[in-house]
Amino acid sequence: MHLDILVYGFIQSCALLLMAFGFSLVYGVSRLPNFAHGALYVLTGFVAWALFKQAGLPYPLAAGLSILISGLLGVAIYYVVLRRVRGMEVSEVIATYAIGLAVLEGLRYAGFRGGSYSLPALSDGVVFIFDVPVDHQRVWLVALGLFMVVAIWLFTRYTRVGRSLKGMAQDERAAMMLGIDSDRTAALAVGLGSMMAGIAALIIFPLGSLVVEEGYKVLIYAIAVCVVGGLGSWPGTVVASFVLGYSQYITVSYGKPHYQMVVMLLAIIVTLVIRPSGFFGKQKQLEERV
Amino acid sequence: MLEAREVMVFYENMLALNNISITCPDNGVIGVFGANSAGKSTLMYALSGIILDIQHKEKMRGGERITLFGQVLQDGEDITDLKAHLRARRGLVLCPERRRLFPESSVAENLAIGGHLATKSQAKETTEFVMEMFPALKALRSRAAGFLSGGEQQMVAIGRALMAQPTMLLLDEPLLGLAPSIQHIVVESIPQIRKERGISVIVTEQYARPVIPYVDYAYIMENGSTVMEGTREELLDNPDIKAAYFGC
User: Fold this and answer.
1) pLDDT exceeding 90 applies to what percent of chain A?
2) Which end of chain A is flanked by fewer CB atoms within 10 Å, N or C?
3) pLDDT in tens, A194-232
4) Is the pLDDT of residue A289 over 50?
């Protein structure tokens, strides 16, 4: 096995994990498929760019503010739109997709076109992992991807709010019977999911340029990871990120770069045909037992 | 004290609850008995506020129209329009029919999620109480709730409801599908909860015999209406009721 496949496949997997984890969190907790996820990802990048380049704020402050804005926007989207359509699957998809489309096309309409926008890397330099050169930004990406998984695991296991998210994810009505506020918890999940999209954007965008079209790509990647892993399953999201990340990297190594998208679309189709519940379709069986 | 006054629930044009009035005093145990479709679970949903969530969701998705009339009062205060999670915060906690556990979570985690409203010390103390009441759960702490037997799941469901620090516990058909030996353990928990925690209990069942020794007062429901009510002794003295619900 080529070592570069091992190393860069791992990096690609962590990038997918970062892109998809917010989407998975929101769906897992509130059963809302947030099709505006990709738009929030791109929007955070442009907000950070505007605060840094236009408003002249120091980059750490601009990055922090843009993530916060993304989270607040997610909460606002929940209270203004999603709360009213919750439980109506088609309306949820249409509403969130429309919001995403409005944001992305709005950015394009506002003049953010082409590849002339970029965000700075967290640090410059190269390290060698198994003799494979890796730039610092990609090391940050891996560290943040793994940190996010551990942080969410600890958060849902050891904090009151985290446990309420976990309860809601499994049975909303049972959670309500125990005093958990369904709306507040779902809004929190959408806010957290949006912030995760924002964090992913700020760590991944410095590897290339800031383009609106990334929003559509990220949405499809996130959906692919969640469908393959099992919608709403957090362990499934982690496993699927690695399976698809390595598949993508191997395909690109021996094929062409645009096959990346083909891998993701094929993964969605094959999963839906062979095993619609994804890798971790366990929850359904358990629900039936209960 | 919990009081339902002239509660009526319509699912479209079907009358699910017809002018139901029941009262549960502080530290009392009240039974509500009736066959399938008598309206017991709808009554529990109305008392716990879950019916408001069902009504809202049905309305938003253009589904079944649910209409509610009457009042629910807790300690004299009208809580008819209060959402379920806010009623739980006031101590009114439902342990629903068919348990509705968090299937992927372990027994310990189900209890921990149930303790959302409890302080750290309350959660610790209540967990100890639950483990003492249902010793079988001690060895199952780390087992996923979805893989437990029906009886074990019911014990977890009652324990989880107690973690929410109720003052009034609504037990909806806790014996459903349980073997007689397990029924005995679950039923025995009712007087223990009342005595040691000072919690009032409203319990519904189809078959009243296992539960009747522990209730102070009971209501018999048929087709959404209360057809009879009385103390345990009064109901046991009625030969028709005795034959239909107490199997003796």
Assistant:
1) 73
2) N
3) 999 999 999 999 999 999 999 999 999 999 999 999 987
4) no
Higher pLDDT pick, A104 / A149: A104
Q: Cβ neighbours of residue A249 under 8 Å, at least 6 residues apart?
A: A5, A8, A9, A12
Strand partners, B230: B218
- Chain B positions touching A188 (Cβ under 8 A) are none
For residues B215 and B30, is the Cβ–Cβ distance under 8 A?
Answer: yes
C-alpha distance from residue A205 to each of B27, B191, B193 (Å): 62, 62, 58
Q: Cβ distance B193 to B157 under 8 Å?
A: no
Tokens found for residue B163: 């973690």
Nearest chain A residue to B85 by CA: give it. A179
**pLDDT tens-digit map of A262-281:** 999 999 999 999 988 888 86
Is A282 within 8 Å of chain B by CB?
yes
Confidence at residue A277, expressed as pLDDT on a 0 to 100 scale: 86
The DSSP line for B102-135 is: -TTSBHHHHHHHHGGGS-HHHHHHHHHHHHHH-G
Of A84, A157, A174, which is closest to B100 when you measure between CB atoms?
A174
Single pTM value for the model: 0.88
Q: Which CATH class is domain A2-289?
A: mainly alpha
Q: Where do the domains of chain A lie?
A: 2-289
H/E run at residue A135: strand A132-135
Q: Which residues of B touch A287 (CB under 8 A)?
A: 103, 146
